[in-house]
Amino acid sequence: MPSKYQAWRVHPNVSTHDEKSIDILENLVLQEAEKPVPDPGQALVRIHAAALNFRDLLITAFSPKYPVSTIPGLSPCSDGAGSIEAMGPSKNSRWKVGDEVIFRVTNSWDDGDVSNFKGNGLGSGDIQGTLSQYLLVDESWLVKKPSHLTWEQAASIAGAGGTAIQALFHNGISNGLDLSGKTVLTQGTGGSSIFSAQFAVAAGARVIGTTSSDSKAELLKDLGVHEVVNYRTHLSWADEVLKLTDGRGVDLVIDVGGSATFEQSLKAARFGGTVAAVGFMTEPQPSDPGLIHAIIFGAKTIRGQMAASLEMYHELVEFMERHKIEPVVGQVSEWTEAKDAFKALMRQSVPGKIVIKV
Ligand SMILES: NC(=O)c1ccc[n+]([C@@H]2O[C@H](COP(=O)([O-])OP(=O)(O)OC[C@H]3O[C@@H](n4cnc5c(N)ncnc54)[C@H](OP(=O)(O)O)[C@@H]3O)[C@@H](O)[C@H]2O)c1
């Protein structure tokens, strides 16, 4: 068995920190490393596929917008799927060589509320990530791979799927994993929003999606989304959502746009409704005193979402297996062409998840 393996690592080779600049890809370098031997409590995983999230652009850019500073030499990416090749000596591990696994984004939050979340995520700060042929991790990072998914599909679920589970089912809106009688709004066709839309449909909600193009609207409809609003042709898209809901608004908005979408998201939420703040795709806007008015006199709840607990990951796997949900994988790049995958993520042209074969 070869003792060396390859990993993509980030080094601050360019001066720009703009995650939309193609130049940041010069920070990504393919390197060789020596295969490590697991200590007790550790597993060495042969990664078969890794998937990208928007945060991986920020990390590759060494962007100050990401809350944790990146060490040079970090392998980015939290999402991946693989099989355990070696285990450290242990008498009572629940894992064994050959098990097929994915990784949770943080290993610090097992159950309870988010106050139990400490430390950083995989592929950020100084914690090596999945854009690597091998990853040595503490067993606490491992989650069983859903049995019905390919490596590429399984690689794409952890970050976006875990967040969707938390946003939909842990905000006091659902009845367990049931959203019958509730209306949910999702934004766009990025990896994160497509999971939210798929899960909300499977849980029995009425789902309204927004998107930037009519072709992407068709994709949402194919996934079971009930109504779609084009936010480019309807700049005040919340008015369209209010029309669709007889003026009431939706129970839950899953906001990925951030600053530039938040006002519309608040307007689209019903009286007493919730906006789950998941993403920050847009640039900061001047603060608007009208927002506070909208929150107070709409009795609205704003919930920041951060990753998912181990309990939520178990729900994610069980929910996807039960409903036979397959992630939308929009592009699969070969290992040596990993930079093409980052370019596609920058262009926002590919709906769903962008995966790299490892
Ligand atoms: N809090 C967490 O734990 C967590 C977890 C995962 C992701 N996130 C965050 O969620 C955001 C989305 O992540 P992602 O990985 O899904 O990104 P992504 O796959 O790159 O999503 C890109 C898509 O977002 C949509 N979009 C962009 N600007 C928009 C706008 N102004 N209004 C509505 N939709 C817009 C576009 O879809 P259309 O062209 O169809 O409109 C675009 O194709 C990021 O900010 C990411 O950091 C947070």
TrEMBL record:
This is Alcohol dehydrogenase. SUPFAM superfamilies: GroES-like (SSF50129), NAD(P)-binding Rossmann-fold domains (SSF51735). It holds the Pfam family ADH_zinc_N. It comes from Talaromyces pinophilus (Penicillium pinophilum). One of its GO terms (molecular function) is oxidoreductase activity. Residues 23-356 form the Enoyl reductase (ER) domain. It comes from the Eukaryota.
